Amino acid sequence: MALYSDKVMxxxxxxxxxxxxxxxxxxGEVGNAKCGDIMKIYLKIENDIIVDAKFETFGCGSAxxxxxxxxxxxxxxxxxxALALTNKAVVEALDGLPAHKIHCSVLAExxxxxxxxxxxxxxxxxxxxxxxxxxxNCAHCRDH
Length: 144
Ligand code: FES
Hints:
By secondary structure, the chain is an alpha+beta fold. 42% of the residues lie in helices and 17% in strands. It has a three-stranded antiparallel beta sheet. A hairpin with a 6-residue loop joins strand 1 and strand 2 (38-46). Helix 1 packs across helix 2 (61-74), helix 2 packs across helix 5 and helix 4 (87-93) crosses helix 5. It is globular and about 45 Å long. The chain binds FE2/S2 (inorganic) cluster. FE2/S2 (inorganic) cluster binds at residues 32, 35, 37, 59-60, 62-63, 103-104, 107.
């Protein structure tokens, strides 16, 4: 069996939603200290719906495919769905990732959560901090 599924290769070669978003309602950036990869997700949110999502990923093919798939999975969906998106769901939608590449999909889940947290903060919306596991340790909370 090939190491990477057709879907991973497709989203790696033809990533959806790449780019910077001007006037985003929420921006989330995360990195993995071990591999050095960085992922940034931009969200446009109207009436509690993710009307658009974009990403910039400086990282491996699996991270690019994960960001591409993750943005596709949340576009057009309510904020609550995006908040509930797990890296497992991203991996399943990609028809799997090799075990040593699972962490790449985790970046996508974390970047989306970070962008949603940014959206809540910017708009003064109360939210449950326990939904953001690394909240206290991430740069956002630490430096603000
Ligand atoms: Fe680090 Fe893929 S190797 S995100």
